[in-house]
Amino acid sequence: MVWVTKAEIRDSYNVYVEFNDGLNGIINLFNVINNDHRLIVKELINIDIFKTLNTELDTLCWDNGVDFAPEYLYEQLKNQQKAAA
To answer: By CB neighbour count within 10 A (0-12 exposed, 13-18 middle, 19+ buried), where does 17 fall?
Structure first.
């Protein structure tokens, strides 16, 4: 089981994330947010709402109630790193 140990917004929709197993890197969440059908997730397109990011419940959470499963974020990071290689 993986969980987020650290998260920081770097710029726009890029978030630096560290996981408990040592995997770390920047996840770009723009496409994730933009392609999600849920209105509450689409609210994160507003950069002021996006900037309310925090790390409650061992994952990324926002003040509007959105959170992503840490396993999902882990796979997103691995896929983005693989695509960049």
So the answer is: buried
